[in-house]
Design a protein that fits this description.
Helix content: 25-40%
Radius of gyration: 22 Å
Bound molecules: guanosine-5'-diphosphate, 6-O-phosphoryl inosine monophosphate, magnesium ion
Structural class: alpha/beta
Number of strands: 20
CATH architecture of the largest domain: 3-Layer(aba) Sandwich
CATH superfamily of the largest domain: Adenylosuccinate Synthetase, subunit A, domain 1
Shape: globular
């Protein structure tokens, strides 16, 4: 890393570091999204890494896109934990992550080309599963098949990264490939032979069904390509359970970085319009192989409005395209991974409260407050009504969610710009009232507010004025 970049990326003195106010104790912590993804988790993780020795991903794959802005440099991280921009942190990709070797090697090369060191600071679990090109094809063909069967509204709108088919193979077992097999020439050959045989039958049928051409996969060519990628990744592959166990014993501090978000959780999200992993703090234990209760601090990230990319219900989606488009443009709400425009909604406190409860949040960080500046009035979803009946809890049934009429409260807006504010007291009163409503509704303290995506745009909330 050249000196200038390293100076840019080095964290400031923790005493003057606003992120220190985010942490209530000295234990292990996690950062998770409380909405539909893209809440700004990357920014929060990056801001916190100076307080941790290791940063660990435990779920998802390169469907995630975590953007981190440092000065005028913008980084987008997909598989590598956002701790990589802090030269001190060890970054771990846990066993619960699905790894696209081509994507990961590309990400490593792109970071190195920008002066970011990626070497011994990156460790990859030998038990993580491998995303292969046929998973991406299966992902695309399944979406086409759904579209053909039931139309566009039935499609999940996946990122096309092969995430679902890879996790499905993990559950299927015999067609899966793990990292320890990828880096073992004979094991890779054996596993590929089985998987390719099965995939060729399955994908030919699926392609035929949707009328797409299909060229059978050549196991030899795939082996050559993946053997070469394995050579690049092998130095990073290790037993990350042992690594994390030793780190805990030595008193090192671990930060777990959630990917995707609570409402996309395979078990607890808006099923079937979800991703294929456990995206909440509940997923840390199987996904990173640390004992239950390891994490004492669960920080939930809440964007002050809602964004959703892909299919599925979003109860508070804004119908007025002018307002939605304004928020999309000001908030730069275009996918970090796929570039797709995100659907925009008002803040949905029913969903956020559900997500905070599910995660066991101990603190909240609000992002995107500056995006709302200048709107005279803001709507906040505070309840759900279906068929004239008010729901007490977030429902299991995505069909029901589609029919929800949100109950809104309209609150006073505030004038901007606020992106230069660095003290909570300097925020307009109406902006503080808005943020404090999130705390009031969820019962979880708001620890900080982001007034933009920059590393220096995290405004700490003075402890005395927060709920716990
Ligand atoms: P992540 O996936 O949770 O790390 O979030 P992304 O980086 O994918 O997306 C965050 C989105 O929120 C981007 O489109 C930002 O432009 C937008 N955004 C609006 N306000 C803020 C803010 O205060 N902080 C951050 N980090 N993002 C913001
Ligand atoms: P980060 O970590 C936003 C969405 C996809 C799709 C659904 C399933 O950046 O917050 P998948 O490819 O996982 O099978 O797609 O989940 N999705 C995300 N949306 N942010 C993400 O991650 C997402 N990861 C998955 O758009 O609707
Ligand atoms: Mg994202």
């Amino acid at each position: 890393m050249n000196d200038q970049t390293s100076a840019n990326l080095a964290l400031s003195d923790p005493q003057a570091d606003p992120a220190s106010s985010l942490l209530a104790d000295r234990g292990h912590a996690c950062v998770v999204g409380l909405q539909f993804g893209d809440e700004g988790k990357g920014q929060v993780v990056d801001a916190l890494t100076g307080h941790f020795d290791l940063v660990v991903r435990f779920n998802g794959g390169n469907n995630a896109g975590h953007s981190v802005r440092i000065g005028n440099q913008k980084f987008a991280l997909h598989l590598i934990p956002s701790g990589v921009l802090n030269p001190r942190a060890i970054n771990v990709i846990g066993n619960g992550v699905v790894i696209d070797p081509e994507g990961l090697v590309g990400e490593i090369d792109a970071l190195r080309a920008r002066g970011v060191a990626v070497g011994e600071n990156l460790r990859i679990s030998d038990r993580a599963h491998v995303v292969m090109p046929y998973h991406k094809l299966q992902d695309r063909l399944m979406e086409l098949a759904l579209g053909r069967l039931h139309g566009q509204t039935a499609q999940i709108g996946t990122t096309g990264r092969g995430i679902g088919p890879c996790y499905a193979d993990k559950a299927q077992r015999t067609t899966a490939i793990r990292m320890h097999e990828l880096v073992d020439e004979r094991a890779l050959r054996r596993r590929l032979d089985t998987a390719v045989e099965v995939k060729n039958v399955m994908l030919a049928a699926l392609a035929g069904y949707v009328g797409e051409p299909f060229e059978p996969i050549d196991a030899d060519a795939l082996f050559e390509q993946y053997h070469e990628l394995a050579r690049r990744l092998a130095p990073h592959v290790c037993d990350t359970m042992e690594l994390l166990a030793s780190a805990r014993l030595e008193g090192q501090r671990i930060l777990f970085e959630g990917a995707n978000a609570a409402l996309l959780d395979i078990d607890h999200g808006t099923f079937p319009f979800v991703t294929s992993s456990n995206t909440t703090s509940l997923g840390i234990y199987p996904g990173a192989a640390v004992p239950g209760g390891t994490v004492s601090e669960v920080l939930g990230v809440v964007k002050c409005y809602t964004s959703r990319v892909g299919g599925g219900p979003s109860a508070t989606q804004i119908d007025d395209e002018l307002t939605a488009d304004r928020l999309r443009q000001v908030g730069n709400e275009f996918g970090t991974t796929t570039g797709r425009p995100r659907r925009i909604g008002w803040l949905d406190l029913m969903a956020v409260r559900y997500a905070a409860k599910l995660n066991g949040c101990t603190g909240i960080v609000c992002t995107g407050l500056s995006v709302l500046a200048g709107l005279p009035r803001l709507k906040v979803g505070v309840g759900y009504r279906v068929d004239g009946r008010e729901l007490r809890h977030f429902p299991a049934d995505a069909g029901l969610l589609e029919r929800i009429e949100p109950i809104y409260e309209t609150v006073e807006g505030f004038e901007g710009p606020i992106d230069q504010c660095r003290r909570y007291e300097d925020l307009p009163q109406a902006a503080r009232t808005y943020v404090e409503a999130i705390e009031g509704f969820t019962g979880v303290a708001v620890r900080a507010v982001c007034v933009g995506p920059g590393r220096d745009q995290i405004v700490p909330r003075p402890r005395a004025s927060s709920a716990n």
